[in-house]
Amino acid sequence: MKCCGIDALTGEAVEIQAEAGVITAVEPLLDRPASLPWLAPGFIDLQVNGYAGADYCSPATSLEDIGRSLEAQFACGTTRLLATVVTGPREGMLAAIRNLAGAREALPHGRAIAGIHVEGPFISPADGPRGAHPREHVRRPDFDEYRRWQDAAEGLVRMVTLSPEWPEAPRFIEAVTGEGVVAAIGHLDATAEQLREAVRAGARLSTHLGNGCHAVLPRHPNYLWHQLAEDRLAASFIVDGIHLGADFLRVALRAKGVERSVLVTDAVAPAGCKPGPYSLGAVDVELHAEGRVTLRGLPQLAGSALRMDRGVENLMRLAGLTLQEALTMAARNPARVGRIEHRMRGLQPGERADIIEFDFDAAAKSIRVRRTWLDGEPVWQESA
Fold it and tell me: 173-192, pLDDT tens digit by residue?
């Protein structure tokens, strides 16, 4: 595999060569053409509940639908993702995890599923922090249940989001991080000391910071400020212009710094589909024309319809980031935070040849993905 373009993370015109799925050489172009496309590492999405009609939380979702959802995400520049299973019945979650692990093994491009992110069920039962997660299935952290997930996934569970408010949380965090799994905190109603205990135990990420919260919080002592002030916590953000206001996003990025910030979609099954009514398991939702996904008949958000390329654009438009900064949040930072091996250094020899070729309009702050490679294999190309 060989491609030429401007490395968007360095600004250099380069020729990239890859063999056996790995970048083998990145050489400067001595004779630079007048016009070159842009190149970047493929995006990594650490929180995808579904896409293009495929619900990752349902054990009934077919291999064909999961495969089609991966192909649709390749068109958005996403090359690796953590398929996310949310709060549900014990057996239902276990079956969904088993289904995703099977899809990863069986599908031609199943390796794009870099792991599984289990969001819940060990979250706050309180209205607001719980979000759209069903209250009847919220429960205390249980390491035995986690072990059953890993057995069903054959070790593919790479991230767990839980609330630090549970007394069992610190011990649970210590146990899973001891196995190399990322412990994230989210959907929480925790005190400052509970948050500190979670971080001391090994928690290193705030899941979709600014969402999964009470509608009204105390002015100063609250769990948003505590997370923003904790330098040991990175934070993921849903940058669709719906989940977060631009002012909060800008302030949060200043507090965390781009280096500790990650772009996620939190996409659900209706993402990439036409507006209308949909079902996420037993939960009825509505995809609205402006891209908002809500519980049907209610204003409450239930995931997003965001795609990663639009998220990169929104980081430039809403937060004022440069292209390089936005791409760092979409590719390098999630690799580091999510411990996705051989994806942390950008377009460098020895890294996986997950690459996107795209056009960039600096005035409009827009990108247009032209080609996507997974391990050096072309998996998507824009039609002529």
Answer: 999 999 999 999 999 999 99
Give a yes or no: residue 3 inside a domain: no
Tokens of 356: 């996107």
Average pLDDT, the chain: 97
Q: Which domain holds residue 296?
A: 42-348
As a whole number of Å, the end-to-end CA separation of the chain is 21
Whole-number pLDDT of residue 281: 76
Residue 270 forms part of a structural domain = yes
Number of domains in the chain: 1
Per the annotation, the verdict on 359 as an active-site residue is no
How far is residue 182's CA from residue 53's CA, in Å, rounded to a whole number?
Answer: 28
Q: What pLDDT digit, counting tens, does each position of 47-104 carry?
A: 999 999 999 999 999 999 999 999 999 999 999 999 999 999 999 999 999 999 999 9
Q: Is residue 376 part of a domain?
A: no
Task: For residue 303, give the H/E element and its range.
Answer: strand 301-304
What does the alpha-carbon distance between residue 362 and residue 373 come to, in Å, rounded to a whole number?
Answer: 24
Do 97 and 118 meet the contact criterion of CB atoms below 8 Å apart? Answer: yes
| Active-site residue (options: 65, 266, 309, 354) | 266
Q: Is residue 62 part of a domain?
A: yes
Burial of 176 (0-12, 13-18, 19+ CB in 10 A): buried
CATH number of domain containing 106: 3.20.20.140
